[in-house]
Design a protein that fits this description.
It is a single chain. With 443 residues, the chain is mainly α. The chain has one domain. It contains 19 helices and 2 strands. It has helices at 2-6, 8-27, 41-52, 62-65, 68-83, 85-96, 102-112, 120-149, 154-169, 188-202, 205-214, 223-247, 259-271, 288-300, 313-328, 342-369, 374-385, 400-415, 417-424; strands at residues 334-335, 338-339. The protein has a two-stranded antiparallel sheet. The longest helix is centred in the first third of the chain and has 30 residues, at 120-149. 47% of the residues are buried.
Length: 443
């Protein structure tokens, strides 16, 4: 146990588990529910895991099931999860005044993706400043909108505005309204700030720090920043176009809306599958092609070392570059005039395959114990692993064992597949030899 506290790569999953356990205990208290009765263990555990993992999947209605105390607990949990246990572990190391050894630097390097240990102090300062600034600005806009346009009193407006601002910034997807944000389908003033907060934080803190130091000068950005920004723009445009095209005439989603509302909601839903989980449309009413596009967007996710989930944009585009270079017969895979090291290529492949394997295994298990359609189960498992929080509406109908499986997916998806694998590889030694080379037939 003592060794775990000295090794950040083991400390990260441990802190996540502790936060989930504390959240579960608090949510089980009688006064955490609106009825005044103790919440069942599975319900409290699932809600706590979803909040700490900033996912947003729920088995009970957040607005009506939980008391004000319960909702505050949930808000605190996804604020902690969004701030990042990796950041907390870095801060713990600095407060202890002991610095990091080589092994810890390598482990931290994986999750924070290209941030050096010497940058830890500035990263923490940046995280705190951005958190306070973005949440305050978004909350102020939402509170003012609720008071001016919806005749809400200051108290309720403040609570709903702050709740959604914090949830949006942390990409949590929890809403203090029973229908998420479906009541604001035509309100750009309410939806756009939420979209902006999600996009900014889904870029990841390494990108924010790079932009802070170098401004918007593309030529001076790091390769990681270029890939993340370019990938984000491409995925947003692809998602927007696909949703707009496929749902334009759907009578249960965009069909009855005006052109402006269709554009607004298509834009909103091109952002949310990337990791956030708010919905202004009925996801369960999406057409099959739209669900398929959501699979892709959720699985890829957002930027590294931020509040986004998924396998991450850099992972996806590194693998695309590898495939392209192989098709072209080139020795090295590259983007923007920079080649990738083989270690990065193997890491990207490992993350991608591990994620796909976990999702497939979880889906097979849930399909085996339920009679739910495969497209809905697959949507749920991808959403859980990628810590998105969107659902076709089946979460509350799943048996307890399936909910535990989703909790495991959320935990692994938030902590990071590589971090978990490294934490389990206790004291793994480098291989001191190499086997003779022989190439099998591929394809």
């Amino acid at each position: 146990m003592i060794r775990a506290f000295r090794d950040p790569v083991r400390l990260i999953p441990l802190l996540f588990a502790v936060a989930i356990a504390i959240g579960t205990a608090l949510l089980m208290l009688p006064f955490a529910s609106a009825s005044g009765q103790a919440t069942p263990l599975v319900t409290a555990f699932f809600t706590s895991t979803s909040a700490v993992a900033v996912t947003g999947l729920i088995v009970v209605d957040t607005a009506t099931y939980w008391s004000w105390f319960g909702q505050v607990v949930i808000l605190v949990l996804f604020q902690i999860g969004g701030f990042g246990i990796m950041t907390a572990a870095t801060l713990f190391g600095l407060m202890a005044g002991r610095g990091f050894g080589l092994r810890e630097r390598m482990a931290t390097h994986v999750e924070r993706n290209r941030l050096e240990v010497g940058d830890a102090r500035s990263v923490l300062a940046l995280v705190l400043k951005i958190t306070i600034a973005v949440e305050a600005v978004v909350a102020a806009i939402l509170v003012a909108r609720l008071m001016v346009s919806y005749d809400s009193e200051f108290g309720p407006a403040l609570w709903h505005g702050v709740f959604h601002a914090v949830s949006a910034f942390n990409n949590a997807g929890f809403s203090s309204y029973s229908d998420s944000v479906m009541g604001f389908q035509t309100d750009a003033v309410f939806l756009v700030p939420i979209m902006a907060a999600v996009i900014v934080t889904a870029l990841g803190f390494p990108v924010m720090q790079d932009v802070r130091h170098k401004g918007v000068r593309w030529s001076q950005w790091t390769l990681h920043t270029k890939i993340t920004v370019m990938g984000t723009a491409v995925l947003l445009l692809v998602g927007f176009g696909a949703i707009l095209a496929k749902e334009w005439t759907n009578p249960d989603t965009l069909g009855p809306m005006s052109v402006g509302a269709k554009i607004l909601n298509a834009g909103f839903h091109s952002v949310m599958p990337r990791t956030a989980g708010f919905n202004s449309l009925d996801v369960g009413a999406f057409r099959g092609e739209t669900l398929l596009m959501n699979y892709v967007l959720m699985f890829i996710g957002g930027g590294s070392a931020g509040t986004a989930g998924g396998v991450k944009i850099t992972t996806f585009f590194v693998l695309l570059a590898v495939v392209y270079s192989e098709v072209k017969g080139r020795r090295d895979a590259s983007l923007f005039g920079r080649r990738f090291g083989h270690g990065i290529e193997r890491q990207a492949l490992t993350v991608f395959v591990a994620a796909a394997t976990l999702i497939i295994l979880a889906s097979m298990y849930i399909l085996a114990i339920t009679r739910l359609p495969m497209e809905q189960v697959l949507f749920e498992t991808i959403s859980a692993f990628s810590t998105v929080g969107l659902s076709t509406g089946i979460t509350a109908d799943l048996p307890p064992s399936a909910l535990v499986v989703l909790c495991a997916l959320m935990f692994v998806g938030r902590v990071g597949t590589i971090t978990v694998a490294t934490a389990l590889a206790l004291g793994a030694e480098p291989q001191p030899f190499r086997y003779p080379e022989e190439n099998p037939i591929v394809g």
